[in-house]
Design goal:
The complex is a heterodimer of chains A (about 110) and B (about 120). Chain A has about 110 residues and is mainly β. Chain A is about 0% helix and about 55% strand. In chain A, strand 6 and strand 7 (about 60-65) form a beta hairpin. With about 120 residues, chain B is an all-beta fold. The termini of chain B are far apart. The chains are: A mainly beta (about 110), B mainly beta (about 120).
């Protein structure tokens, strides 16, 4: 049972455009929703995270939108740059020290 | 990589041999995790630890064991490696930060090939 579904699998965006990656979850006990960025050969790097009591969080060009009733959240990358080309993972965590449940990832390519 | 090192970074081993991967942190964080990453699966939790000698199973724990005798070290052991355990293994750490967040930070990974 996949508890976090991520889409699309791959995405091509023109430089300067908006990249949008979506995730949906099933477990209402999840209380923390991070996004990770991963470059080839590297470990995932925490990008931005949100808790369910907030509907939106913005850090620079990166914004998370969160819809608790629909059990969905998304990552928006504004003014996308070639350096943003990477694989992005959404994740969710249950209460306490539980590990993260990850989506399967989105391979993002920003074309110059 | 948030003060996390993993060793070895690459390893090739034969089916049936034991393998131990090491994760070392310098952040003095309480929680440590082992994940595996496979194409099309994202990252999946193998085991985690919430303190010295305190560990628990994750989603894909079969065939793996862990130990944590010191805060800074978390070992993952494959008792008898199989080809299905060919993967990239990531260690992660987390601990309370300002505001009570439990952000997880990942190490550089170990690429394990079982032939």
């Amino acid at each position: 049972q996949q508890q976090v579904k991520q889409s699309p699998q791959s995405l091509i965006v023109q430089k300067g455009g908006i990249s949008i990656i979506n995730c949906a979850y099933e477990n209402t006990a999840f209380d923390y929703f991070p996004w990770y960025q991963q470059f080839p050969g590297k470990g995932p790097a925490l990008l931005i995270a949100i808790r369910p009591d907030v509907s939106e969080k913005k850090e620079g060009r990166f914004t998370i939108s969160f819809n608790k009733s629909a059990k969905q959240f998304s990552l928006h990358i504004m003014d996308s740059q070639p350096g943003d080309s990477a694989t992005y993972f959404c994740a969710a965590r249950g209460g306490g020290a539980d590990g993260l449940t990850f989506g399967k990832g989105t391979h993002l390519i920003i074309q110059p | 990589d948030a003060g996390i090192t993993q060793s070895p970074r690459h390893k090739v081993t034969e089916t049936g041999t034991p393998v131990t991967l090491r994760c070392h942190q310098t952040e003095n964080h309480r929680y440590m995790y082992w994940y595996r990453q496979d194409p099309g699966h994202g990252l999946r939790l193998i085991h985690y630890s919430y303190g010295v000698k305190d560990t628990d199973k994750g989603e894909v724990s079969d065939g793996y064991s862990v130990s944590r005798s010191k805060t800074e070290d978390f070992l993952l052991t494959l008792e008898s490696a199989t080809s299905s355990q060919t993967s990239v293994y990531f260690c992660a750490i987390s601990g309370p930060r300002g505001g009570g967040g439990y952000e997880q930070y990942f190490g550089p990974g170990t690429r394990l090939t079982v032939t």
